[in-house]
Structure formats: C-alpha cells, structure tokens
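Input set for joint prediction.
Command: fold jointly, output tokens.
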Amino acid sequence: MPLREALRFIREALRPEPLGKERVRLEEALGRVLAEDVVAPFDVPGFRRALMDGYAVRAADTFGASLEAPVELKLVGEVRIGEIASVRVGPGECVEIATGAMLPEGADAVVRVEGTAREGERVLVMEPVSPGQNVMETDADVRAGEVVLKAGTLLTPQRIGILSALGLEAVEVFTRPRVAVFSTGEELLRPGDALVPGKIYDINWATVTAAARLAGGEPFFMGVAPDELEELRAFLARGLEEADVVVATGASSVGAADLMREALSALGARVLVDGVRCKPGKPTIIALAGGKPIFCLPGKPTSALLTFMLFVEPVIARMAGLAGMARPVVEAILAKRVVPDTGRHNFVFVQLTKGPEGKLVAKPIFKDAAAITALGLAQGYVEVPEGTEFLPEGSRVRVTLLWPAWPVGRSDLVPEAHVN
Amino acid sequence: MPLREALRFIREALRPEPLGKERVRLEEALGRVLAEDVVAPFDVPGFRRALMDGYAVRAADTFGASLEAPVELKLVGEVRIGEIASVRVGPGECVEIATGAMLPEGADAVVRVEGTAREGERVLVMEPVSPGQNVMETDADVRAGEVVLKAGTLLTPQRIGILSALGLEAVEVFTRPRVAVFSTGEELLRPGDALVPGKIYDINWATVTAAARLAGGEPFFMGVAPDELEELRAFLARGLEEADVVVATGASSVGAADLMREALSALGARVLVDGVRCKPGKPTIIALAGGKPIFCLPGKPTSALLTFMLFVEPVIARMAGLAGMARPVVEAILAKRVVPDTGRHNFVFVQLTKGPEGKLVAKPIFKDAAAITALGLAQGYVEVPEGTEFLPEGSRVRVTLLWPAWPVGRSDLVPEAHVN
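tokens >
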C-alpha cells in the first residue's frame, strides 16, 4: 500500500478520538488537554477596578482642571487594594485609591497621582479625566458565562494561569491513552538480563515507550514475546485487555510476520494495512481488534522509531485529545547524493552540521539501520517521494527533525513544523 | 540597569550549575539530563553478526562464483537468531544463517539467500563475497570503553534507546532544582478561596509553577504572603530553606517593593539587580542569599511570565543541567505601528494570524497587562531595543513565540529558535 494511502487509512479507518475524561488539579495540568469548554463563572475583575494609583473622583468635577486652574476636591477616605470600598464619593469629593483597588460608590474615574497635589485633606486636581478613565469595568476582562478556553485546548503555563484567574482548582482533561508495548525477537535481552553471546539488548522497548509518553500516552512495556503463535496471541490479547493501543516491534522478518498474522487472525483482528511502500517501514502491519488499533513495526531501531512517528504517534496524540505532534522542519544542503530505493517513499536519515556560511548541511547516514550509532547520529530525515530518481549532492532539502517534538492542541499555531 | 547587563549578571554572578545527581530508571528518564559520561561496558553487537539472511561462508570459497559457474558448498548446519553458533564452517562448507544471527567459527562472510540456490544439503553460490561482506564486526557499532553519551546530554527517546542497547536499567541524571514560589498582594485569592468583592484570584502562582516545571524544575507554591515585613521575611526564609531558587511575584508597587527590600536585607541577602530598564519588567529585583537566587517579579500576569522567562527560566534550566530553553522565532508583518516606551528595552506582546498571502501578521496587544485576556491572546513578543523611536506598521518583525518551549541539552542543535 502506498504511504499516503496508509496514512489516510489511519485517519479514516482508525478515527482516533479522545477516550475519556478525568479531573486534574491545576498543579498537574501542564501538557494536558481540556475535555470541556471552560465557562467563566463570574465577571472578571468582578468589580470596578482602579488602573492607576491616584484619586477616585466624579469625572464631571474635574472637567476644565489644569495646572493653572486646578480643581480642589475634599479627601474623604482611602481604598486599599483587596479591600471592599466602604466610603462614598459625593460631589466635590475624592478618595485615595491604589492600582487594582475597588472603585468606591459615586466615583466614575481615577485621576493619577501625578496629576494632583495634596495639602492635608485638600487634593488639587490639575488634569481632567473623562468618565471611565483609568477604570477597568466589572466585566471588562471576562464576562460571566463567556467560554474562556475551549475543549481541545492544550494547557500551557499561560492557559493554566487563565484557569486560575477563574478560581478553578481542577479541570476536566482527556485521559491519556494506555499503550501496551512489546518486542519480538529471539535475540533480544531486556536491560538487567545477563549478556549472552548471540543476543543483544532490546532498544525498541525504550524508544517506543518514551516516544509514546511524549505523544501524550501512558505506555507500559510487557516484555519480549517468544516467536511462538500461542505466546504472540497471549501478548496481543493481554495488550488489548489492558491498553487502548498495542505496539509490537520486530515481527517483520518473513517467518515472524507470518506468525504475527496468524496470531492477529486468531484474535479476530482485522488487518487494515499489511506492508507500506516506504523505506524504512515496508513490513508494517496495522490491525484493529475490538475497536483498538494494533501496530506491528519493524525491528531495526531507526525503522521502529520512524514508523512509530508516522503511524502510531498521531493515533496516540489524537486519543489524548491533541491535534498531533509537531517537529521543526529546516532547510539544509545535502552533503552527498542520495539514490533512493525505487518504488517506495524513502525516508533518509541525516546528521546536521553547520556549513561554512552558517548554512545547515545534511549528511545522509549510510550506516545499517540496526546500528545504535545510526540511531545516535540521526537528527532528522529527508523525504524522497516515490518516483524520484535521485537527489544530487548540494541540493536544498527540507529536513524534519526527530527532536524536539511538541504536542499541538486544536487551536495552536504551528510555525514551520511538520505535524503528524 | 540595562537589560543586557542584568542578563550578564545572571550568568556571571549567579553562575547557575547543576546541583546534584540521582539515579533514575530508563522508564523515567525522558527529558532528564545525563550527569555523567556513559561508557559502553562491552562491544556492540558483541559478536560477529550476519547482516543478511543467507549462508555463512569462507569468502575465499566464493571467489569467481557466477550465475554461469556457481560454486557448490556443503550445508553443515544452521544458526538462528539469538543462538550461540556451535557449528564450524570448514573449507567448502556453509551454514544457513538469519539476519542478526551470530557468525559461526570459520566463516568470514555471508552470501545473501538471493545469490544462492539450494538442493538438499548442497548450496550453489552464484555470487562471490569478499571477507567481511554482509557481516557486522564485534565492535562495529560500539567499542567497549567508548563514551557513548556525554554528561549534559538531554535524554530523548532515541538516546534512551541507546542506553538500553548498553544493557543499562538506570542512569545518573542531574536532580531537578526545587523552586519555591509565592505571591504577594493583599487583593489575591487562591483557587478554592471564596470570592470576595475587591479581590481577584491569583494567576501568577499557576503560570510560574507551570513554567518552572517546563524548564526542568520542581516547583511548589507556598501561598500568598501578606504585605508585612515579618511575613515576607518568613516566606523568603522558608523558601530558601526548602528550595534552591525562590520566586516571588507582585511585590513591585512602591510600598511593597520597599518592604521586600527590607525583608531581603533582614535575611542578609545581597541585591544584585534592583530594577531593569525593560518593559515589562522594570521593578524586577534579583538577590542572592546563601548562594541561592531570589527573584522578585512584577505582579501583572504577562509581566510576571515574561520576566520569569527572561531571568528565572535560564537559571532553573542550567541548574537542571540543561543548556537552556528554546522557543521558535518566526517572521511576521507588524499589523499596527508600535511606539515603545523610551529609555527601555520593550517587549511588545503580539497575537499572530495568517495574512492574505499566508504570511504571518503580528497584531500588538494593547490591553492592560493585568488583563487575563491579554495573557490569553499573547502568542509571542517582538523586542524593541532601547533607542528605537518606533516600529512602523507593515514592518517585518521577528516574533519569539511563548509556546512551544523545549529544553535544550548541551550538544543539541537549535534551529531558528530563541534560546534563553
């Protein structure tokens, strides 16, 4: 199946949607996604508020005031910030007021302190103010009943501040999808296992669980499944029972993939995608069982990570209520000619360095995808669509970085980035 | 003090450095920073590994092999992946081998299965291989003793995968600096408090603790400190006792700032910065007590968030072992003329929209910085250096986004971003 079609299948056949809601305190809300519109329960600021240090006055009393002809008002009290204004301003009167304090009854404007002079209980006003001047109205900031933040909003520090302004201690957010991860491959050891000749430590459990967490999921690693039908079936079944998404890596060699297909079929899973015309990623299998998606990714670490990003990450992100994940895209000069595999959409991993004129240079990584050094060097990838004969050395390419990756909410601006 | 000087003071007088180390399991390592060089404890893969499905052979036996003149070898066994190769390949012999499996003794190359034909125990080799072909050497990926990841490396999914390849279950990372946060202002309520006329809910506790967490800190909120010398002193003292950094917001109005200065002096704190020639941020105070930094930021929400980003965030990030925090910088067209305050470095908050030709348009936000709607609308800021008369409508400006923000490790590439 062509890559584009596989990606459309994921959107249209899997239709990933948020799964549930939970209540979290604002302290724990960073990076979570609002599950409901947040409506202001009251006006903000909720009272008429002075925007300057000065004197609360009746504006009409100050009309015509100037340095040469100041207006004299009688000081009848003071309102400090945080206090209920108990004093009243009558004609010819004024009240000392602090920025942020409540405007007393009778007053409709504030003369800033710099525009006044004081002699005991007499205040000379040397500049006129118009009604409402230097005053924030009761509902000037937010009106009660107004939707302040919409469902689907990613909670950033700024937005958590807004929730706090509404007096909220906790909010409804989408739950994080549970992601069951297992590896397959008779050669794999788990960290902590003793090293045995012929075997290597598993890498994919670590990259996939970390990437799933980054995308808003709650991953857990189930272990390394032996290459046996019943074992594979049992791993898949337990994954489906305990999680919302199942991700297996490594069942891509010919025999192992056949076993995986059998195990999927034994579970009644419907295979949506069996093989994608991309490199890496050809042996990817995507299936659906009881409404839950199962992803079988190739076993080489860079291949597993890339196919996770392409196929799994957007599903997890959407289940978490996000619009997706974004990564920066940068322009670079290709350091070496790239000849892609024909008949497939190629992803070429590159290492980036600064060239002579400060321009970025993308050096293709020709190491075997199984090498952990390849995993270490890869800073991004260049896409070479099916049908491209080759990319000449020195050509300008667009590189999607593997890191940083950040969550994108429904209404977020995404500058110069690739969104999955 | 000019902005540039204040920023230099932070680097040179505070000299933020990582504070300690702790051991975390790989499952918990995402986003943490390595506190020590990671040295490979063994060679990777650790044995000679087949890179193709095929036959392990003595390369010399295949020299001259072709489709027309195949070389016949005797099949003497099989090595499967994960197994110890117990069979030996003698002259004229071969062993069936799977990708990733251990090369048996005697063999020095692998002929891919596509280059062979098999008849029972006879294998016809139709293409020659050179010694080492299709074989990954014992230490081809990583050599024992090699530094694989350096101290100061930010742990991404890829790098956690590399740690896993080395069989590590846990690694030493820098501890997260503890950040004590308190607010000041008689008008402030905490979420959960009953709403009282004249008072408003505190915003800064929420934005500052979330932003501190984002920068790699472990923040905790101490509460709202009353405007009294002894109380302020007690809040500061407790913050210094329980945390590595203390952040107070709101003590910026004339009287409150004086109290704060007195409280700092009562604690023997050395004031490094008292006022910065920037807007917002003028009343910022930065002090040092017992080697720990204290930041007193203005109280208006956007001002508090911006000064946190400018002054506090890089200190927390460096204490967490990071190089800093990065945010995207984008080009936009200014929608309205901006006349900055003279004699100060101005930060003008803007809202971004897509203009007619897809270009970004930056609309300055003229709302009062105290308004939560200003906080909600601000997507980024434009810097207007001291001495700039004005920025005309339609000019091209560089906008630093407030979000996303991502941590940067010492060796990380930072494309088109502002790093604090």
